[in-house]
């Protein structure tokens, strides 16, 4: 899961821009009155996110009994997502903010939407709060939907507040059947506490990453089959091993916990693969 830089926009500025073209005077006045609640909510979020306490924020269906959940959600859907809406340029900027447009939740598919960490349906006050919104792929967005959790270990990894690349937690093992394939799994780093590990384990499960990575690594193995065969014919298992080691170190240098790093580490550790397991038959 990829860490992202915090958005630089101020929550009240974004809110002001979004509601700037509200025509209905009553609605406009009620939205304006939400600002103190918004400031409190952002402070609460900023304090709780690094402590893995966002699950303690209560779900709500109105802001102060003054603005309904639906009205607040529309500040996002009508005034930030809409193609001609005043907040659209912020939406576009955030959606394009992930390095190489890679989704921070699955670290594989490309970003094409925005994701609310605390879902706007259950936490409408956070509908347009910058630190609650980040770019993601539609598949992850669909999986997460209106997820509400009630314990720290169920909190999905937050791209702005969590760093899970400080230790190795993603591994793969070679399934010794022809054609060779890989199974991905998580391991608990010694330096992590149980909650951090349970979070990554639950995140891995929730976003179905075992299947996603298994499928991409299978394509990778097929793509390299010709080259590995050629190396084996010229320099035997040793040459194959050297190539796999170089690939593993190169991938690891880019990202410690990518499926590519796990793939090449597993292949480098597999004598079975190097001594002919790579052959399709
Ligand atoms: Zn994704």
Which SSEs are present, and which pair or pack?
Blueprint: H1 11-18, H2 25-32, H3 35-48, E1 62-63, E2 67-68, H4 69-81, H5 88-95, E3 113-116, E4 133-136, H6 138-144, E5 170-175, E6 181-186, H7 194-206, H8 209-254, H9 259-268, H10 271-277
Antiparallel strand pairs: 1-2, 3-4, 5-6
The structure holds zinc ion.
Features:
281 residues, mainly alpha, 2 domains, 48% helix, 9% strand, elongated, binds zinc ion
Count of the separate structural domains: 2
Mean pLDDT: 96
What is the number of helices?
10
Q: Could you give a short account of the major beta sheet?
A: 2 strands, antiparallel
For the record, give the distance between the C-alpha atoms at the N and C termini, rounded to a whole number.
35 Å
Unreliable parts: none
Percentage of β-strand residues = 5-15%
Q: Could you state the oligomeric state of the chains shown? A: single chain
Give helix and strand order, one letter per element, not per position: HHHEEHHEEHEEHHHH
Radius of gyration, taken over Cα atoms and rounded to an integer in Å? 23 Å
**Which structural class matches the secondary elements?**
mainly alpha
Work out the helicity level: 40-55%
Tally of DSSP β-strands: 6
Ligands, deduplicated:
zinc ion
Could you say which overall geometry the principal axes of the C-alpha atoms support?
elongated
The largest beta-sheet arranges its strands as 1-2
């Amino acid at each position: 899961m990829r860490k992202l830089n915090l958005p630089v926009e101020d929550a009240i500025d974004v809110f002001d821009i979004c509601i700037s073209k509200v025509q209905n005077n009553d609605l406009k006045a009620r939205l304006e009155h939400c600002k103190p609640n918004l400031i409190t909510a952002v402070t609460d979020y900023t304090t709780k996110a690094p402590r893995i306490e966002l699950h303690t924020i209560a779900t709500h269906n109105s802001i102060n009994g003054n603005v309904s959940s639906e009205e607040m959600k529309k500040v996002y859907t009508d005034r930030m997502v809409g193609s001609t809406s005043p907040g659209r340029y912020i939406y576009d900027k955030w959606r394009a903010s992930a390095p190489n447009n890679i989704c921070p939740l699955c670290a594989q598919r490309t970003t094409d939407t925005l994701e609310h960490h605390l879902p706007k349906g259950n936490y409408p006050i956070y509908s347009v709060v910058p630190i609650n919104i980040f770019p993601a792929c539609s598949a992850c967005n669909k999986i997460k939907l209106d997820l509400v959790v009630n314990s720290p270990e169920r909190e999905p990894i937050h791209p702005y507040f969590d760093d899970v690349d400080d230790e190795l937690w993603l591994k793969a093992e070679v399934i010794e059947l022809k054609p060779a394939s890989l199974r991905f799994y998580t391991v608990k780093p010694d330096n992590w506490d149980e909650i951090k590990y349970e979070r990554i384990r639950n995140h891995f499960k929730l976003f179905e990453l075992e299947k996603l990575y298994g499928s991409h690594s299978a394509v990778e193995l097929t793509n390299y089959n010709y080259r590995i065969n050629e190396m084996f014919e010229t320099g035997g298992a040793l040459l194959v091993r050297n190539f796999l080691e170089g690939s593993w170190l190169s991938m690891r240098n880019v990202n410690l916990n990518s499926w590519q790093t796990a793939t090449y580490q597993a292949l480098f550790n597999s004598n079975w693969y190097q001594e002919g397991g790579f052959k399709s038959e």
